[in-house]
Design goal:
six-stranded mixed sheet; 12 helices; alpha/beta
Length: about 375
C-alpha cells in the first residue's frame, strides 16, 4: 500500500473507528483483543477473510499465561452416527469407529466423552446394539444423550434398556452438567393410526410436516427447575441437548418449541453453555448469557438453513460430495476456569476450528451480519 493509499484509507474511517484505533496506543490487553476481533469480524463480513482463516480470529485471543481463564478440564464428543443395521462394512459404522479412534488417541485423555444422540437411523434394536458395541471401545467414561432417531420406533424402550435415563444431571469438578431429552413430540400418530415404523419414518424425515416440533416438555422443565433450584448460581452450568435450545428453522425442526421457557430456567446462572447435536454443522449462538455450540456428525453434514442462522456462526464451507468424510468429524470441549467453554471442531477433511468463549463474550460478532440465505 502506498503512502497516498494509507492516507486516503485513514481519511475515510468513521470518527468512531478512528477513536478506537487511536485508543489502542494506551489500551490494555483486553481492550486490544476486543478491538482486534471487531475489525476481524468486519473483514469476515465483507468476505475479505477466506473460509480457512478462522484461526486468525481465534489467534486474536491467544493466551498469555496467567492473564486469561485457563482450561480447567476437557471432555470430548461424538454425535449423530445414524447407524443402519448393515454391519461394520457400512460407511456410517466405519465413521463411528474412526471417531472412537480419534478420541482414544487424545493425549491427555478427556475426563469423559459425550455421545450427542442419533446413534441409530431408524431406532431399531440391531442399530442401537451395533452402536453400543462400537462405543464400548471408548477409553474414557461415556455419557449418552438420546436423539429422535433413537426414540420414535419404540418410544425409547430399547435405548433406555441399553443406556439408562434419557435426562439426568451430574456434577464434575465444580461444574453442573445437565443432559436433556429435547426431542419430545406431541402425539401425532395415535389418531392417524401410524405404525411404529411409519411414526419413525415421519420423524426421521427432516422436513416432514406431519410431525410436531421438538420440545423439552413440561415434565422435564419442572424437573430441571427443581434440580437447579438447589444449585448455586455461581456454579458453571453446561447443558447437553440434541436439538438446539433455541428457534433456528422450524421447517427442518432445527427448533425447540419451548426454548424460551428452558432458557428462562437457565439464565439466572452466571455461566451457561449449551452443547447440541442434530444440526450436523459448525453452529454458534449467544442469547443473553447463554452460549450455544453445535456438534459435528460422523455420518453427513447438513447444509445451513435458508434463514435464521445466528450471526455468531462462522460457517464451514460447502462439503465435497465426492468425499464422504468432508463436513463430518468429532471434537472436544475445553471447560475454562471462568465456566464457559472453548469449542474445538475436528473436521476430518478440513482445517480444525476453534470457537472460544472470549469470542462469544466480546462485543464483536464473528459471523457475517445481514445473513440472508444459505452459503450453498
Amino acid at each position: 500500500m502506498t503512502k497516498k493509499e494509507i492516507e486516503r484509507a485513514f481519511a475515510e474511517r468513521t470518527p468512531e473507528a478512528e477513536r478506537e484505533i487511536r485508543a489502542l496506543l494506551n489500551c490494555d490487553r483486553r481492550q486490544f483483543l476486543r478491538t482486534s476481533l471487531k475489525f476481524a469480524g468486519m473483514a469476515a463480513a465483507a468476505s475479505l477473510i477466506p473460509d480457512q482463516s478462522f484461526q486468525l480470529v481465534s489467534a486474536a485471543y491467544a493466551e498469555t499465561p496467567g492473564a486469561e481463564p485457563t482450561v480447567k478440564f476437557r471432555f470430548a464428543y461424538i454425535s449423530d452416527a445414524h447407524l443402519y443395521a448393515k454391519g461394520m462394512t457400512h460407511r456410517f459404522a466405519k465413521s463411528l469407529v474412526k471417531a472412537v479412534e480419534d478420541i482414544n488417541a487424545l493425549d491427555p485423555q478427556p475426563d469423559f466423552v459425550l455421545f450427542g444422540g442419533d446413534l441409530a437411523q431408524l431406532g431399531r434394536k440391531d442399530e442401537l446394539e451395533l452402536g453400543r458395541q462400537i462405543l464400548k471401545d471408548v477409553r474414557a467414561p461415556l455419557r449418552m444423550m438420546v436423539g429422535e432417531h433413537d426414540w420414535y420406533y419404540d418410544m425409547g424402550d430399547e435405548w433406555r434398556r441399553m443406556f439408562g435415563r434419557d435426562y439426568y444431571t451430574f456434577e464434575h469438578k465444580g461444574v453442573q452438567f445437565v443432559v436433556l431429552n429435547s426431542v419430545v413430540e406431541k402425539d401425532f400418530w395415535t389418531e392417524k393410526g401410524y405404525t411404529p415404523a411409519e411414526r419413525m419414518a415421519i420423524v426421521s424425515g427432516l422436513d416432514d410436516n406431519r410431525q410436531s416440533p421438538f420440545e423439552v416438555g413440561e415434565e422435564q422443565r419442572d424437573w430441571l427447575a427443581r434440580k437447579l433450584k438447589r444449585v448455586p448460581k455461581q456454579r458453571p452450568l453446561v447443558v447437553f441437548s440434541h436439538s438446539p435450545l433455541y428457534k433456528l428453522y422450524k421447517p427442518w425442526n432445527f427448533w425447540t418449541d419451548d426454548a424460551e421457557q428452558v432458557q428462562a430456567i437457565l439464565s439466572p446462572f452466571d455461566s451457561v453453555s449449551v452443547i447440541h447435536g442434530h444440526t450436523h454443522q459448525l453452529l454458534t449462538n449467544r442469547i443473553g448469557n447463554i452460549h450455544f455450540h453445535g456438534m459435528l456428525s460422523t455420518a453427513w453434514p447438513w447444509p445451513y438453513a435458508p434463514q435464521g442462522l445466528p450471526e455468531y456462526t462462522v460457517q464451514m464451507s460447502r462439503s465435497d460430495p465426492f468425499n464422504q468424510l468432508d463436513g463430518c468429524g468429532d471434537g472436544r470441549v475445553d471447560v475454562l476456569t471462568g465456566g464457559h467453554v472453548d469449542k474445538h471442531y475436528n473436521l476430518w477433511a478440513k482445517s480444525p476450528r476453534i470457537v472460544t468463549a472470549a469470542q462469544l463474550a466480546g462485543d464483536a460478532v464473528p459471523g457475517p451480519r445481514g445473513y440472508q440465505g444459505p452459503s450453498y
